[in-house]
Amino acid sequence: MSERTVEEIRAEIDAERQRLNEDLTALRTEARSLAVVVAAGLVVVALVTWRKGSREGITAIWKLAR
Q: In angstroms, rounded to a whole number, what is the distance separating the alpha carbons of residues 18 and 34?
């Protein structure tokens, strides 16, 4: 049998839960910042397409993407 007590196991579980919560918070923060970048990119694509017309806008975006 293991030499660990119930309290030690519970403390380890609590510590792991805390680390996981911190990781989840960091992941959510990164996702929010990525969403802002994606939204800004979509706005740029819409503006380029609107200003140049569909065919020329798609060509301009393709050139920027390469």
A: 25
pLDDT in tens, 28-51: 999 988 988 888 888 887 887 777
Q: What is the rounded distance in angstroms from the CA atom of residue 14 to the CA atom of residue 8?
A: 10
Among 19, 63, 64, 59, residue whose Cα is nearest residue 41: 64
What does the pLDDT read at residue 16? 97
Rg of the chain over all Cα atoms, to the nearest angstrom: 24
For residues 46 and 42, give the distance between their C-alpha atoms in angstroms, rounded to a whole number. Answer: 6
CA distances from 44 to 20, 39, 57 (A): 36, 9, 11
